[in-house]
Write a structure and sequence with these properties.
This protein folds into three domains: 125 residues, no CATH class; 116 residues, no CATH class; 65 residues, Cytochrome Bc1 Complex, Chain D, domain 2. 39% of the residues lie in helices and 17% in strands. It is of the alpha+beta class.
């Protein structure tokens, strides 16, 4: 055997004297085709739903949950399979994903989640890995099918249309807002259920001209009383003054600040504080028709120029309250219950106004709060930060 191996090595390590160069080239080419065909066939075999649910860990858990969602059955008859959502289509990204998934073989061999109890105990960690991966690749798998350029925004509700247009402008990652759409959320993450209805229940009726109110959630804004031309989005808990009421439409004025660098589309509640009051479209942000410009100041810390503005726009009648304290009470309760799942949450006054957005965004991966509740809780934290508390840390 040893002599056979030695003789073989001597043959392959020396120039050929019996076979032509053309024969060797053709043989190598054919061998390459056979190898590539076999490799690609094996790769595609692992990229099917049948393969994914071949183990009971997947078949008896997440596969069952998928069948309860719109990704499984819907009016258009288009169904998403496991690889559609978990494997990118691009070849290089697909190979990288397969390499990442190879560690699942280790888990299958050693029974990491081979029982329902083990799976549920591990679910939070598994979900977080997927969310982190989708955040890092900008939801590449979601965009296998969902493309901002192909969306018909006119088919969406007013609220969804405004938010999706803004997401499209930033090419935002889908997973930032959409969790639990194909599988159940980990335990203790269902805190977002029904919160929008609770917020809407706080709204006041019969708005009076000249009175100040606060938005109970994020609201689409329009340029006129017909409510047809979008002007941007009002953030939760933003103070507005009623200027006029026309049937289903109310005209409001927002006193705010904006950074004049760029288009100046973001409205802030106070000078040099990133407390978001809303967003404007580019057209509205650059139009004097809807905006009165006031004093300008420079932020000593950042060197950025700020400008006081009064913005006049229209909202659909409803979703405003005359009591900001009711909103703060709701936000505090949500913060205390939702953000203590993993650890004791920091006190509101532990950070300053401009530090809270970064800290809060880091917590969002571990809770399930809808966009309106997120916006409200963040503004609550900023308005109760160390900048507004005496003797705070």
């Amino acid at each position: 055997m040893k002599n056979t191996v030695r003789r073989f090595w001597q043959i392959v390590s020396k120039p050929s004297v019996h076979l032509s160069f053309g024969f060797l080239t053709m043989g190598g080419f054919i061998a390459g085709i056979i190898f590539w065909g076999g490799f690609n066939t094996a790769l595609e075999a692992t990229n099917t739903e049948e393969f994914c649910i071949g183990c009971h860990e997947m078949h008896d858990n997440v596969y069952v949950e998928l069948q309860e969602t719109i990704h499984w059955q819907n009016r258009s008859g288009v169904r998403a399979t496991c690889p559609d959502c978990h494997v990118p289509h691009n070849w290089t990204d697909k190979i990288a994903r397969k390499m990442q998934a190879s560690k699942e073989v280790w888990g299958a061999i050693f029974g990491t989640i081979d029982t329902r109890e083990k799976f549920l105990a591990k679910r939070g960690e598994l979900a977080q890995h997927e969310w982190d991966r989708l955040t890092a690749n900008n939801s590449l798998e979601c965009k296998n099918c969902h493309n901002y350029d192909s969306m018909d925004f006119n088919m969406m509700s007013e609220r969804a249309r405004v938010q999706m247009k803004m997401a499209a402008e930033r090419d935002q990652s889908c997973i930032d807002c959409h969790k639990g759409i194909a599988h159940h959320l980990p335990e203790n993450m269902n805190s977002g259920d029904g919160m929008l209805a609770k917020l809407e229940a706080m709204a006041t009726s019969g708005y009076q001209v000249g009175q100040a109110y606060y938005s109970v959630r994020q609201l689409p804004m329009f340029t006129d009383s017909t409510l047809t031309t979008e002007a941007g989005q009002l953030n939760a808990a933003t103070k507005v003054t009623i200027l006029d009421v026309k049937g289903d439409a109310i005209q409001i004025e927002i006193d705010a600040w904006r950074k004049t660098k760029g288009f100046g589309r973001v409205l802030f509640e106070d000078f040099a504080m990133n407390i978001n009051d809303g967003y404007l479209t580019k057209e509205v942000a650059q139009s004097d028709q809807y905006m009165q410009q006031g004093e300008s100041k420079e932020d000593d810390l950042t060197g950025l120029p700020w400008q006081k503005v009064a913005v006049t726009l229209w909202l659909r009648n409803g979703s405003l309250t005359d009591s900001r304290d009711r909103l703060w009470q709701f936000a505090k309760t949500t913060y205390d219950t939702s953000c203590s799942v993993c650890h004791t949450q920091p006190a509101e006054a532990h950070f300053d106004t401009n530090t809270w957005p970064g800290m809060f965004n880091g917590m969002l991966s571990f809770v399930n709060l809808d966009g309106d509740t997120q916006a409200l809780v963040l503004k609550y934290l900023q308005k109760h930060s160390s900048d507004f508390a005496d003797g705070a840390h």
